[in-house]
Design a protein that fits this description.
By secondary structure, the chain is of the alpha/beta class. It has 19 helices and 5 strands. Bound molecules: adenosine-5'-triphosphate and magnesium ion.
Length: 372
């Protein structure tokens, strides 16, 4: 994080667009605010907007403004957030959730700096806005799957900053934990508990899928428990405690998968899930499905249940799209049929409905999987 801070300070001095990548809760907005605070624009506005929280029809008018009467409810002219951010910084969060139509509008804005309010005949005056965007998705995979415009991706990705997940930050975990314990104890006017070494080890071993936000919630709950002795591992929430036992990562994942596909007994998957983890890593690093997974399967290094678990993981990542899965597994779209035929033959062609319906529910698992 110290190295990242130096990088942030350097990036802040330029006016270049920044694209922030990181799992949910790693601090993308914190970094965006730092970039603004260190920049020459610090005296002007920092305007954040979360693209996923706003219905697509409203997003355009939120960003670019609208004229009175341009749609039902547009009672007066509204300048829009881009104008509000003039001279300052506009932070677009959850960029990966933006529709293709909205992406086209954003592209036009990034190319010319001009904005056209909804319902206006003419372009409004040009604005001077620094654009910082963020996503927790694998945008490159989205580009390949046709869900994100490549031209926009290259426009926004001038400076790329990847914020590592908490589990990769070593003792940051304990520093942040103690910081937030103190903060929670101050704000609730309750004593600040001491943490036993065994509990510290558990905290460091946990995966923290919700990253700093999750950590902050855990500290708050601990303070509210008003424990009048040292905090032991047993005082920690169940999901955190599970990290004590080896292989629990896989157990958690298997349990989640079995919920979706009762026809599979995911408990039969390789004991600690490491086979699946290492194959997944190879796929994410660019190996294709045939050479990584298919071969291991033919060599009996991978069971049918392992294969299903891997497909399950992929479908969580693509939210149930087999087409996107083909791309994610580094196959060309032409191989879609062969891929599907293989899964069908192994009865690993998992139904997609649960992934589509689950939508947001899988967000966390999905992101951490993609980043690893
Ligand atoms: N380095 C840090 N030090 C202290 N607090 C932090 C740090 N990074 C993040 N936080 C806190 O963690 C929480 C989540 O941070 P933030 O909202 O910036 O994450 P995010 O990456 O934007 O998450 P999301 O993907 O859900 O939008 C906030 O409460 C923030 O204050
Ligand atoms: Mg955010």
């Amino acid at each position: 994080m110290s190295a990242l801070r130096v990088y942030i300070e350097r990036a802040a001095r330029t006016d270049a667009k920044v694209l922030l990548f990181g799992e949910t809760g790693v601090g993308k907005e914190v970094v965006a605010r730092l970039l603004h605070a260190y920049s020459g624009r610090r005296a002007r506005a920092f305007v954040p907007i979360n693209c996923s929280g706003i219905p697509e029809t409203l997003l355009a008018s939120e960003l670019f403004g609208h004229t009175k009467g341009s749609f039902t409810g547009a009672l007066r002219d509204k300048p829009g957030l881009v104008r509000q951010a003039n001279g300052g910084t506009l932070f677009l969060d959850e960029l990966g959730e933006m529709s293709l139509a909205m992406q086209a509008m954003l592209l036009r804005f990034t190319e010319t700096g001009e904005i056209q309010p909804v319902g206006a005949d003419a372009l409004a005056a040009r604005t001077d806005v620094r654009l910082i965007t963020a996503t927790n998705r694998d945008l490159r995979a989205q580009v390949e799957a046709g869900a994100f415009r490549e031209d926009l991706y290259f426009r926004l990705n001038v400076i790329e900053i990847r914020i590592p997940p908490l589990r990769e930050r070593g003792t940051d975990i304990l520093q942040l934990f103690e910081y937030y314990l103190r903060q929670a104890s101050r704000s609730h006017a309750l004593p600040c508990p001491d943490i036993a070494d065994a509990a510290k080890q558990v905290l460091c071993a946990y995966r923290w899928p919700g990253n700093v936000r999750e950590l902050r919630n855990v500290t708050e709950r601990l303070v509210l428990l008003e424990i009048d002795r040292r905090v032991t591992p047993d005082d920690l929430p169940e999901e955190v405690r599970q990290s004590r036992r080896p292989g629990t990562r896989a157990v958690t994942r298997r349990r989640a998968a079995s919920d979706v596909h009762p026809r599979f007994d995911f408990d039969e998957a390789s004991e600690d899930g490491s086979v699946i983890d290492s194959l997944w890593d190879r796929l994410i690093q660019g190996d294709d499905f045939w050479s990584a997974v298919h071969q291991a399967f033919k060599a009996h290094e991978l069971s049918r249940v392992d294969l299903a678990a891997l497909i399950d993981r992929g479908l969580r990542h693509t939210r149930g799209s087999y087409r996107a899965l083909v791309t994610l597994f580094n196959l060309s779209p032409r191989e879609y049929k062969r891929f599907h035929a293989f899964l069908y033959a192994q009865r690993c062609n998992l139904p997609v409905a649960p992934y589509r319906m689950a939508g947001k529910k899988f967000d966390t698992a999905d992101k951490s999987a993609a980043r690893r």
